[in-house]
Amino acid sequence: MLRRKARRGQGGGAVRDVDVLDDPLDAAQERRVRAVLALGGVPQADLPDGVQQVRLRLLERAAGGQEAPRDVSAWAAVVASNLAMDWHRARKRQERLGERLSALRQPVAHPSGEETSVLSLAVARGLDELPDILRQVVVLRFYADLPVRGIAEELGIPEGTVKSRLHTAVRTLRTRLHEDEVV
């Protein structure tokens, strides 16, 4: 993130120097952040807000005097992944609240059945059903293409924990796809 001086005119024509912050995310980093958010289950309509949250956190970090992340792209992907987890938690809270309110109004209704879907929808559904900590490492490893060591460093957990979570997540997704007879 660079600070640069710009000359700005004021109402009466007076010119003064002002600090201008360059965008902390370049175009490629922004696309990566959007993709991590989307793969984390954040709806398309909420993606711009998620990208702005990542920018804001990077700017707040700089304003607080903290050193810039060593790898801004990896840092931004992890922040985006954490935002996606937060979004899911909030959505689950809303769903539980809605279920409780609905239960107060009417007797419990059971769903009629589950529809089948193509592979991409089955994988997306499988990702949605993974616990947050498993979904996070899958998205960071297989979409954001972060190495296991990088994920461990960014999340502050041992590499073995990342490997274990990846193994569990992949096994769970594979089982899910076989149960749904998608693969």
TrEMBL record:
SUPFAM superfamilies referenced in this protein's UniProt entry, alphabetically: Sigma2 domain of RNA polymerase sigma factors, Sigma3 and sigma4 domains of RNA polymerase sigma factors
Superkingdom of this protein's organism: Bacteria
Keywords: DNA-binding, Sigma factor, Transcription, Transcription regulation
Pfam families: Sigma70_r4
InterPro entries xref list: RNA_pol_sigma-70-like (IPR039425), RNA_pol_sigma-70_dom (IPR014284), RNA_pol_sigma70_r4 (IPR007630), RNA_pol_sigma_r2 (IPR013325), RNA_pol_sigma_r3/r4-like (IPR013324), WH-like_DNA-bd_sf (IPR036388)
All copies of domain RNA polymerase sigma-70 region, residue ranges: 127-174
Family: Belongs to the sigma-70 factor family. ECF subfamily.
Protein name in UniProt: Sigma-70 family RNA polymerase sigma factor
Naturally occurring in which organism (per UniProt): Streptomyces nigra
Lineage: Bacteria, Bacillati, Actinomycetota, Actinomycetes, Kitasatosporales
